[in-house]
Amino acid sequence: xxxxxxxxxxxxxxxxxxxxxxxxxxxxxxxxxxxxxxxxxxxxxxxxxxxxxxxxxxxxxxxxxxxxxxxxxxxxxxxxxxxxxxxxxxxxxxxxxxxxxx
Length: 102
Ligand code: SF4
Ligand code: SF4
Fold this sequence. Notes:
alpha+beta, two-stranded antiparallel sheet, 19% helix, binds iron/sulfur cluster
C-alpha cells in the first residue's frame, strides 16, 4: 500500500519564505493558467501572507495541502521530502528532519 506523503502533515517549505515559491521555467501559457488569487503574475511568484504561500491550506506540522496542487509551480514539484531545503524548513518549525531521498 502506498504510504501517504510526509508533506501532508508538514507544509513547512510552503510557509518558510515568500521567496521560495517562484516561477522559474514555466511557459507563458502555464503562467497564464495560474490562478490570480494565488499567483502574482507581475512578480512571477506565489502570493504570500508573510512568509506563507497563500495556497497552503491547513496547519504546518499537523495537516496541510496545496490548494492549487495540479497547477503548482515547478519549484514546488522539485521539492523532495528529506532534501536539504526540506530539513531547513522543517527545522524552522521545530520539526525533525526526514531521511534523505533515495
Ligand atoms: S518541508 Fe519537506 S516534508 Fe515538509 S512539505 Fe516541504 S518537502 Fe514536504
Ligand atoms: S503552490 Fe502549493 S506547493 Fe507551492 S508553496 Fe504554495 S502551497 Fe506549497
